[in-house]
Specification:
The complex is a heterodimer of chains A (about 1000) and B (about 80).
Chain A: E1 4-5, E2 13-22, E3 25-31, H1 35-41, E4 48-49, E5 56-57, E6 70-75, E7 78-84, E8 95-98, E9 103-104, E10 107-108, H2 124-129, H3 133-143, E11 159-170, H4 174-185, E12 190-193, E13 209-210, E14 213-214, H5 215-228, E15 232-234, E16 237-243, E17 247-252, E18 265-276, E19 280-282, E20 295-297, H6 298-308, E21 310-311, E22 315-320, H7 326-334, E23 338-343, H8 353-357, E24 361-364, E25 366-372, E26 379-384, E27 395-398, E28 401-405, E29 408-410, H9 413-417, E30 422-425, E31 430-433, E32 440-442, H10 448-465, E33 500-502, E34 507-508, H11 509-517, H12 523-530, H13 543-554, H14 558-561, H15 575-579, E35 591-592, H16 596-601, E36 605-609, E37 612-617, H17 625-638, E38 641-644, E39 651-654, H18 658-665, E40 678-684, E41 690-700, E42 703-707, H19 713-726, E43 734-737, E44 742-748, H20 752-756, E45 773-779, E46 782-788, E47 796-802, H21 806-817, E48 823-824, H22 827-837, H23 859-863, E49 885-892, E50 904-908, E51 914-926, E52 931-939, H24 941-947, E53 950-955, E54 958-965, H25 975-978
Helix pairs in contact in A: 4-5, 4-10, 6-7, 11-13, 17-22
Chain B: E1 3-6, E2 10-13, E3 18-19, H1 35-43, E4 51-57, E5 65-71, E6 77-81
Antiparallel strand pairs in B: 1-2, 3-4, 4-5, 5-6
Chain lengths: ~1000, ~80
């Protein structure tokens, strides 16, 4: 037993114990614990297996920098794979499991891989398994990877929010609190975000006095006072990304006690300015076997002691190259541990005085040369920091904890993400910002008093930039003695030993040396070749050590090597939080027809059609969907059917120049259309490609009603608006979408007139209302329109009334048609009827290359005088190629075989190989012809159709035959339409 | 996320807008221009690094198209003008 819980202190609530499990073992923790602190308190040493070599790994850090403790966490009905145990708040009933090991991390049968390490250097997989990677991939993939992704829907609820403020302060440590205090005091609206569970940063575990209060108490009181005066204080909220124009992405984790509605929240914060007070991350020291469980970040050790009252080890070696670890050594000693300090610097610094006062042994010029103990530290060899061989060790001490501090790297991620440059500062051995970004101020410092002043000044600077004056005096701390310079110590120069630089990705100094020998000397290449600094921790602990080793290997200065670019997110962001509420029914909310309830009452098979929720068909009891579609289609051909066409787009175009405008934007001639008449028209893009089709009705000389396809209405309106505003700004024309204002019911079939005529004062006789004409009047007593257009090939009337009358009108039509056997028909049945007539569906029968000529509609190009949209494109050589794909009909040889949509029409070349000359775009079994029919786009299709050529259709290895024909299977003369 | 100053509505978030690319002047009449001229109008854009003139539509706002001058490197916005 080595790690244990102390009897007093910490922020944990000892009155409230929590039961949880680790790899199936029941354990106990307290409210206030993280999963990592609870595991340590239970002396769980091995929490993971390393990514590549399956070496046992223990907890290294205490928060977001943790590279080792990647675990799967299950909380009731929610699961989170690959969580860092150090940032997971412990909850009652939590079940955590180690990953990347079988059967578990303590007894991993893949551990033997480590013996083969000599044969598994960086680039091993590329070199060994190329070019036959696909053969090995399944087995390698099965072994690789970390956690298991849940297979059930996540029960957690997420939310996305937006906020704006004058100033966003990132980090609520000494500097951040001082900045927020100054800015808020100057009258700015401030958001203060900090990724830790409580504000305060290192004030919560490092000693100090601020304004005559203990630092931790000052932090808590200041955060509370700021919240009281209107600052939005957001603890447990990670600012993970800095984006354009001072936008930031924040992930708020509200997992403590199900606060209100949601758990994790994603925030988009638009600030006028930002103060980055993000603190620093402690770097490890690099020495042989520095990845053994029990080797921990010194600052993390202090956090476990102070916050969670966990003593990670009773016999500790503290190895450091800077002053910050002395406080850790003293705290360990006071908690009852035996402590030895290995100080890399030759001169004992003044900070060591506190250690001497506690009778702690300090070895100057020393560092760790080796660690003994496979599943956890048992003994440590100490020796000169410049030793070239492990034999130079001068002292072997029994130890169960090695607390290491290799210096501090400022958390410059957000600065760098927003385009800020970095420079190497040799004095502090760290990359620091060259200058803040124009909208940012930077704050922080290694010394408490300096950090407070820096934060205060940053807050005041932000206030000044926003024309406010800062009136408060800065918080005051006693200045401390200046710190001694750290010793740059990037590794122990022992050749051959395995020294880990990146614990998460299993990258050693040897891998970096190998990369340098193979000329991967650019830091970006190094990263990609060795995976250094990738994955969830993004090099938080490994980056600078890795660069420094590369610099040594290539004989350059660190400043010359430079650093890689930091990119968002700073820490992993749950995808659920990115999606927020945009999933399920809210992913893309359906538009419902105004008579929706009537269709539901008829047990319609409702489906999603490009944002509209519409009846596919109306199956009767015991009837399959294909049977229902067939019955409905036959009812329209033989009697009468009614179709809810309310989703059909309706765009009103008004104005003295409406005719002129539409003649420019439409391919089809519009200007000579007479009021009361309707024309089928194509809309092209400037590239000549068919964008949409539909009918255009002229209601009056200066009023047109366009009917784009149901799902294209918005894009068509946007297209027309763009042309109106940018190319035709002088034309007097206005347009708007009136789709939702009107309900439209299509009454189609030979008996349609018999039903409608008694219901309306509009004369429906063929002479008064011929095909493609429209009349306004009263239907069932309410004002409306009847348009005679047909998408089915039968005589057909589109009845439009205000959408408020939709339900009443639907019922009246069904009632009036009862005697005639009126049959409601859905989208699928309508689609079958149009296929029999060879009417195109844009985006189904056409694609992003289809020109009007390909559809057999080339007369406007010849006859129309206006420079309409897309005209010039139709004169380009490509548009006039004789071998373009053209729209044709296909009659399969086997009349019972419906070809697959997407099946290719193929020809055999000289070499016997198949070549695609087009494909099937629509296919169905036609009830009217009682055989299968298809439509398709085929090279030189019209010639083939005229000749009645036999084509081969190829689909998934199966070949069938079909005869090309004109794309019109039913009533080619159109007598039924005009009847 | 850019903060775009719509000339009619004032500064608004980027998701409210639709990007229209670099404006191209439509050549014409169709009969008088070469294939190359037309191809250039359809497809050829400067794609400049640095200051860039482009058109945007405030789709989820006033619905108006306008000309924006923006730096494609720093994303700084210099001006937004009514046409």
């Amino acid at each position: 037993m080595t790690a244990r819980r102390l009897d007093a202190a910490g922020v944990i609530d000892r009155a409230r114990a929590l039961q949880f499990s680790w790899d199936g073992r029941p354990l106990t923790g307290f409210v206030g614990d993280t999963l990592a602190s609870a595991l340590l308190a239970n002396n769980v040493r091995i929490v993971g297996r390393s990514f590549k070599y399956h070496r046992p790994r223990g907890i290294f850090g205490a928060w977001a920098e943790e590279p080792n403790a990647i675990v799967d966490v299950e909380n009731g009905d929610s699961q989170e794979p690959d969580a860092r145990a150090t940032v997971v708040e412990l909850r009652e009933g939590m079940a955590a499991r180690g990953v990347n090991a079988r059967p578990d991390v303590a007894h991993d049968r893949y551990a033997a891989i480590d013996w083969l390490h000599r044969f598994l250097p960086a680039g091993f997989y590329y070199k060994t398994f190329f070019p036959d990677w696909h053969r090995y991939e399944p087995r390698i993939r099965a072994m690789a990877g970390l956690g298991r992704v849940a297979t059930t829907p996540d029960a957690r609820r997420f939310e996305t929010r937006s906020a704006a403020c004058d100033l966003l302060v990132v980090g609520a440590g000494a500097a951040g609190l001082a900045a927020a205090r100054a800015a808020s005091g100057a009258g700015l609206s401030v958001i203060l975000a900090d990724d830790r569970i409580a504000p305060g940063g290192s004030l919560r575990w490092r000693d100090g006095m601020i304004d005559d209060q203990p630092a931790a108490a000052w932090a808590a009181a200041t955060a509370e006072a700021l919240a009281a005066q209107g600052v939005r204080v957001m603890p447990h909220t990670t600012v993970f990304g800095a984006y354009d124009h001072t936008t930031f992405g924040l992930l708020e984790r509200r997992s403590t006690a199900a606060v209100g509605w949601s758990e994790d929240r994603l925030w988009h914060v638009r600030a006028r300015r930002a103060v980055l007070a993000t603190g620093a991350i402690e770097r490890p020291l690099v020495f042989p076997d520095n990845d053994r469980p029990g080797v921990m970040s010194a600052d993390a050790v202090l956090q476990y002691l102070r916050l969670y009252a966990v003593l990670p080890g009773t016999r500790a070696v503290v190895a450091t190259n800077n002053d910050s670890a002395y406080a850790v050594a003293v705290a360990l000693r006071l908690a009852g541990a035996e402590v030895t300090i290995a100080e890399a610097r030759a001169d004992i610094p003044p900070a060591a005085r506190a250690a001497f006062d506690r009778d702690i042994r300090v070895l100057a010029g020393s560092t760790v040369l080796g660690v003994i103990g496979r599943d956890g530290v048992r003994m440590v060899d100490l020796g000169p920091a410049d030793a070239r061989s492990a034999r130079e060790a001068t002292l072997r001490v029994a130890a169960d904890l090695v607390a290491i501090s290799g210096g501090w790297s400022p958390a410059v991620h957000l600065h760098s993400q927003s385009g800020g440059k970095l420079r190497w500062d040799a004095a502090t051995a760290a990359f620091v910002p060259v200058a803040p970004r124009p909208d940012h101020d930077l704050a922080g410092g290694a010394d408490l008093a300096a950090a407070l002043v820096s934060g205060h000044e940053a807050g005041c600077a932000a206030a000044r930039m926003l024309d406010r004056a800062c009136t408060l005096a800065p918080p005051r701390a006693e200045p401390t003695a200046p710190q001694a310079a750290p010793r740059a110590l990037w590794r122990v120069p022992i050749r051959g030993a395995r020294q880990w630089v990146d614990l998460q990705n299993d990258v050693t100094t040897r891998d970096i040396a190998l990369a340098a020998r193979e000329n991967y000397s650019s830091v970006e290449h190094l990263k990609r070749y060795t995976t250094l600094g990738m994955a969830t921790d993004q090099g938080k602990t490994s980056n600078v050590n890795g660069l420094a080793v590369l610099a040594e290997e290539t004989g350059r200065a660190i400043a010359e090597v430079g650093t890689t670019t930091f990119r968002p997110p700073y820490t992993p962001v749950t995808l659920g939080a990115v999606a927020g509420m945009r999933h399920g029914a809210l992913y893309s909310p359906w538009r419902r027809l105004p008579a929706h309830a009537e269709h539901v009452a008829l047990d319609a098979d409702m489906r999603d059609y490009g944002s509209w929720f519409r009846p596919a068909c109306y199956p009767r009891t015991g009837e399959t969907v294909p049977q229902a579609i067939r019955r409905e289609a036959m009812a329209v051909r033989g009697g009468v059917g009614v179709f809810d066409g309310s989703s059909l787009g309706k765009i009103m175009v008004c104005g003295a120049d409406a005719a002129q405008f539409l003649n420019i934007v439409y391919y089809t001639e519009i200007a000579n259309l007479k009021p009361g008449h309707i024309r089928y028209a194509l809309l092209l893009r400037e590239t000549g490609v068919v964008q949409d089709d539909g009918v255009v009705a002229r209601l009056a000389p200066d009023r047109y009603l366009l009917s784009p396809s149901s799902s294209h209405t918005q894009s068509v309106l946007a297209h027309l608006e763009a042309w109106r505003q940018t190319e035709c700004p002088t034309l007097r024309v206005a347009m708007h979408d009136v789709t939702a204002a009107w309900a439209t019911f299509v009454v189609a079939g030979p008996r349609s007139r018999d039903i409608l005529a008694p219901l309306t004062d509009i004369d429906l006789s063929p002479s008064a209302l011929p095909h493609m004409a429209l009349s306004q009047g009263r239907i069932c007593g309410v004002a409306g329109r009847i348009a005679r257009v047909s998408f089915s090939g039968e005589r057909s009337y589109e009845v439009s009334v205000r959408s408020g009358y939709a339900v009443a009108m639907w019922r009246r039509l069904l009632q009036a048609g009862t005697a005639h056997g009126i049959t409601p028909y859905g989208v699928e049945s309508a689609s079958l009827l149009r296929a029999e007539k060879g009417y195109i569906l844009i985006g189904v029968d056409t694609d992003g290359l289809t020109l009007p000529g390909d559809l057999g509609m080339s007369s406007p190009l010849r006859t129309k005088q206006v420079d309409f949209v897309g005209r010039r494109s139709l004169l380009m050589p490509d548009a006039r190629r004789p071998d373009r794909r053209q729209f044709i009909g296909l009659l399969p040889e086997d009349a019972s075989d419906v070809p697959a949509v997407g099946a290719h029409a193929v020809t055999r070349g000289q070499d016997g190989r198949l070549r695609s000359i087009g494909w099937v775009t629509s296919a169905c079994h036609s009830p009217a012809l009682d055989r299968s029919i298809a439509l398709g786009m085929v090279e030189r299709g019209r010639g083939l159709a005229q000749a009645g050529a036999e084509l081969e259709l190829f689909h998934l290895g199966r070949v069938s035959r079909a005869r090309a024909c004109p794309p019109m299977f039913y009533d080619p003369a159109g007598t039924r339409l005009h009847d | 996320m850019l903060l775009i100053p719509c000339p009619w509505c004032g500064p608004r978030d980027e998701p409210e807008f639709t990007y229209g690319g670099e404006p191209a002047v439509r050549p014409g009449p169709a009969a008088d221009i070469s294939d190359a001229q037309w191809g250039g109008y359809l497809y050829m854009r400067g794609n400049d690094k640095g200051p860039h003139r482009e058109i945007w539509c405030h789709s989820f706002g006033c619905g108006q198209w306008f000309v924006l001058e923006r730096d494609t490197v720093t994303h700084a916005i210099f001006s937004a003008r009514k046409p």
